[in-house]
Specification:
single chain; alpha+beta; Glutaredoxin; 43% helix; binds glutathione
């Protein structure tokens, strides 16, 4: 591109922002995330912690306590356990398994941040040291 010697106009700046976002796999807007979860569920708490660490907002869907009543969870993820993540921004329809979800969130939105250790011993060590 040839420089015209003028200050960038807002459309130029937007184009640059979009170009940079494409290159770094970042979006210029907040991602559209939803989580199916249950109060008191430690696996859900782990994903909530990752969301908080990464400053991500999400729509929370509290699921019924009884597994057999979790029809929506089954429809989107093929199983009835929670947490389940939906990322409308990236076409993720129903990701299960808290470790997979945490890894996905850090890889997609972490900006080179490392996910916290998932094993109990590593977690205790990371709090102590
Ligand atoms: N390995 C799974 C375990 C998830 C899990 O056991 N969630 C409980 C609630 S705390 C549940 O929904 N259990 C029902 C089931 O697994 O079908 C994960 O890490 O996401």
């Amino acid at each position: 591109m040839q420089s015209s010697g003028r200050a960038p106009q807002s459309t130029d700046r937007e184009a640059l922002l979009y170009r940079d976002a494409e290159h770094s796999h970042m979006t210029t807007e907040s991602p559209d995330l939803a989580m199916y979860e249950l109060q008191g569920c430690p696996y859900c708490a782990k994903v909530r912690r990752a969301m908080d660490d990464l400053d991500l907002d999400y729509e929370s869907h509290e699921v019924p306590r009884s597994k057999s009543d979790r029809e929506t969870v089954y429809e989107i993820s093929g199983q009835r356990g929670v947490p389940v993540l939906v990322d409308h921004t990236n076409g993720v329809d129903g990701m299960a398994e808290s470790d997979d979800i945490v890894t996905y969130l850090y890889e997609t939105y972490g900006d080179d941040e490392e996910p916290p250790p998932s094993g109990i011993v590593d977690r205790v060590l990371s709090v102590l040291f």
